[in-house]
Amino acid sequence: MFIRFFLGLGLASVSMVLSGAEFAATDLEFFEKKIRPLLAENCFKCHSAKAKKLKGGLRLDYRAGVLKGGDSGPAVQLGKPEMSRLVEAINYDNVDLEMPPSGKLSAAHIADLNEWVKRGVPWPNEAAAGNEVKEKFNLAKRKAAHWAWQPLKKQVPPRVKQANWPTSPIDNFILAKLEEAKLKPATEAAKRTLIRRAYFDLIGLPPTPGQIDTYLKDNSPEALTRVVDGLLASPHFGERWGRHWLDLMRYAETFGHEFDFANQEVWRYRDYVIRAFNEDVPFDRLILEHVAGDQIAPRYSRE
């Protein structure tokens, strides 16, 4: 029991050393006013995430980096400046280890760094910029980890309690999640509501009174399917959904800024996108045409 007590006490002590939240407010204020500006001005150029080339493997822009040290070992011994390589370097006690190399710090700055180490290197809790380990880009590894590269697998629709509710296998997945959350699906929408939803979703325009009447009088199970097929074949479909792609491409018919001149030929790209959506061009082909349009055979004759 005593062993457990002292082991727990030791672990707690380590936690206090490593956690910035355990430092007194006066220690953190000392760091922010005295130490951080000093490190930023004299050390970060060579010993931070922003360094063009990290010198000696040493990071001084976050606490764990200071404690870890660099190629020659830990930079500090907590509470013991006389045994810390960082203090040795700024004191110019070793001709092979003089930092910063541009010139010795003032006596006041050296005293501040000594005091900082004596206090246990106080540092507020914060994420270290660029602290992640950078590895070479590996396409095979990325493909194995990302869902978009995984081969399609045939999924078995889950069983549901309300077996008569689904009208397609997709509904099984939706209903299964609803039942898991102890929720009930909404009641079926009225036909007038359905046709308005279909029109606004697919072409962005409301149905005319005549189109509504025709649909309401059609009692066939395929009535809604015929409406949807007609909307997908409408030229307005490409105008409605092509806008999302044009927004992604930041399409505009003027150049913007104070010189807001019209872009005279950009409408050709707009019409191309609308045609592509109306012709159901696959996304991989659409992207290929964007990247290498002048290097591949056209989908249709120029005439």
Automatic annotation (TrEMBL):
Protein name: Cytochrome c domain-containing protein
PANTHER family: CYCLOINULO-OLIGOSACCHARIDE FRUCTANOTRANSFERASE-RELATED, F-BOX DOMAIN-CONTAINING PROTEIN
InterPro entries: Cyt_c-like_dom_sf, Cyt_c_Planctomycete-type, DUF1549
Positions of the DUF1549 domain: 169-299
GO molecular function: electron transfer activity; heme binding
A Pfam entry, by short name: PSCyt1
Location of the Cytochrome C Planctomycete-type domain: 43-103
